[in-house]
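Write out a sequence, fold above all:
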Amino acid sequence: MGPAIVRGRAALTRGASPGALDSRPVLYTRGMVPIARAEAVIRRTLALGEVSYRVAHLRALLCERTPSELAPALEILCARAEQAEPRAREWLVSLVDALTGVEPELRDAVQRLREEATGESHLALERVLRAPPSVPAYGDVPDPNKVRSPDYGKGRPLTLGERKSLARRPDREMLARLLLDPHPEVIRRLLANPRLTEDDVVRLAAKRPCRPDVLAEIARTEKWMHRSRVRLSIILNPSTPPEISAPIASLLTRPALKLVAETTAVPRAVRALCLEHLERRPPGDFDPRADDDEGAGLQ
């Protein structure tokens, strides 16, 4: 059988240039042994310098390859990452980013891969893809359009469009008010504001109670989720949906895993998953100072 060319899909790129993805197509030949396919996947992913290109490439790969082809190779890479192999850990950051996509095609592909990993006992991959039951459920959260917005000092309630516009402006005084806004669309734009700091995002991620859809917006923002303090704040927040927390657990250091496992406010299934990861981390697994590298996002 001929080779299949994996190309990025426009719906899955989230800002990546399709030309950048297609200019250097990689050949994943059908019939490759898993270890060879694993090396092809990691080599092609890490060759893409931009984080958004890596994420788009992996999302396309998840959608375009069959679970039976892909799962054995990803199992090899996830197992290497659990043992703190640097290239595999760098690749794993991009995989976790890719899993936050909300496109129906991607969600269906991830679910099929999850079922393959479970059924074929690809245990390292299954730990990354695990989707514990959500508590609280999104259905228990009030409609953000019906929740009162904060006082923006304008003498009247602002429309959603006005608040979204304010979220783009480099006004530090206004940013403090915007961080209190309950609407995820406002928060999405705020997270892209260049004046926002890591401390701001950590405070937002640690807010209790916090809307799960707001926490999900943070989790989908690669710039901030490549920061160890933000990741830890997200996973420690009891309002974070477990299906968001579970992949993040695969990126935590031993001390962070231990902290989450011992925090009773965290859902039981997430704590149990952290214990599984902790059992497999080698002592002194990796240098936490490398965590906030903009390019690799390593922890």
Residues 139-290 form one domain. The chain has two domains: 4-129, 139-290. Confidence is low (pLDDT under 50) at residues 1-27, 293-299.
